[in-house]
Amino acid sequence: MQSILGNGIYSLPEAARLLGVNSQRVAAWFQGWPGRRDRVFRSDYSGLGLHSARVISFLDLIDAAVCVTLRIKHRVSLHTIRRVYDRLSQQWVTRHPFAREEFYTDEAGRQVFYAVAAEDNERQLIEALDQQHVIPEILLPILRRVEYCGETKLAQVLQLMGRVVADPRRRFGKPIVRDTGMPTSILYRCYTATGSFEQVADWYCVTPADVSEAVAFETEFSGIAA
């Protein structure tokens, strides 16, 4: 059973907002479709408690971000994504193959993608692989946002917008202004109440630029897959 501390926690609507898709889609990926059990991912918090099926971890979020790009932007079937995910999980002995640094750099991971795409007749994916040579090329907008831990090789920080990041070790992974660790939601709510960057900055011992960054994120961010 996964501990929440240090691993981030997101409700499905929170995750959907960060990903830039509707919450029903994210719920289906982690819970399956009504009357069926063909979910793509299993939440790290499954079995943790009454509402565990409705929350996911930071690494779950990274897996889902890759799924968003493959499924929505490149029309890769969920069947293929699930098969690639399962094969890489076995190959790298991990529950989160899409969140591992090897997924970004390892040739073996690319070969798995190609093999599964060929088996499942995913012509568009095969063409993309042939044309761009390596699977990460079509995932770079997502993968370039990720910072990996040198020790575990797993994703540890996700850059959202400007200096706003999600870091599971800070504020349970909620969006924060990186330099200060202040949640963007708090700075934004205070700004909407006062209308003053300077006043909010003074209250929380941050800079007006930090407040501005938080407000921009809360009002303009449309999801990392947008």
Labels describing this entry:
alpha+beta, two-stranded antiparallel sheet, Arc Repressor Mutant, subunit A, 226 residues, elongated, five-stranded antiparallel β-sheet
Structural account:
It is a single chain. The protein is an alpha+beta fold. The protein has a domain at 151-226: Arc Repressor Mutant, subunit A (Orthogonal Bundle). It contains 11 helices and 7 strands. The chain has helices at 12-19, 23-31, 58-73, 78-92, 101-105, 107-119, 123-132, 140-143, 184-194, 197-204, 208-220, and strands spanning 10-11, 55-56, 146-148, 155-161, 164-166, 176-177, 182-183. It has a 5-stranded antiparallel β-sheet with strand order 3-4-5-6-7. The chain has a two-stranded antiparallel ribbon with strand order 1-2. A hairpin with a 4-residue loop joins strand 6 and strand 7. Helix 1 (12-19) crosses helix 2 (23-31), helix 9 (184-194) crosses helix 10 and helix 9 crosses helix 11. The radius of gyration is 18 Å and the shape is elongated. The two termini are 33 Å apart. The mean pLDDT is 88.
